Amino acid sequence: ARAAPSLRDQSQSTSCDAEGAPEAARAVLLPHVEKQSRNAGFWYLWGWAALSLDDLQGYEQAQTALRRLPNARGSSASLAVKAAMRTGDLVEALGYAKDALKENPGDPRLLETALRLCIALGDYAAAEPHAKSILAVDTGHALARYALGTQLLLGGDAAAAEPLLARSAATAPRAESLN
After folding, report:
1. How far apart are CA 73 and CA 81, in angstroms?
2. How far apart, in whole angstroms, are the C-alpha atoms of residue 147 and residue 151?
């Protein structure tokens, strides 16, 4: 008899971007709720699926579990960012992203999320440290160069802004690439 795939195998095979993925993820995860009480990755995925299905009770269940786990504050904050973004509260989402970055300061996804939120809020000064952190790892990051260039331009330093904005445009020639 063939062994059933593990929870890890099942969750990795469920694409978070595919149509129907939240329902599929929930179906895979549901039988494991009791056994995974101390698994932060499980609860993050459970919360993502709940958010995607507009299931506030499932989201709160995931957040409660994450708050109880040591070293899961970053996962809890990341999930809260997603929840706030779904409701359109960008200020709240940025607050949660900053909380998550305290726990995981070099996390590239969190840095880019915070950068995007700062840009969306029009706060290029607040975007600057996130952009610099991203560029320390990825020197060609178009959005980070755009944010720094825009901050310099807004500050009146067009000469310093020009090479950053030119490189950003060369790296991402279509505006959609920056969104």
Report:
1. 12
2. 6
pTM of the model: 0.68
Query: Distance between CA atoms of 169 and 151, rounded to whole angstroms?
Result: 16
H helix or E strand, kind and range, residue 10:
helix 7-12
- R_g over Cα of the chain: 19
The tokens for 114 are 């915070």
Which residue carries 């802004």 as its tokens?
161
| Distance of alpha carbon 157 from alpha carbon 148, whole angstroms | 11
Upper half-sphere CA count for residue 79 (Cβ side, 13 Å): 29
What is the CB-side half-sphere exposure of residue 17 using CA atoms within 13 A?
0
What mean pLDDT do residues 18-41 have? 71
Neighbouring residues of 21: CB distance < 8 A, sequence distance ≥ 6: 14, 15, 52
- Is residue 20's pLDDT more than 60? yes
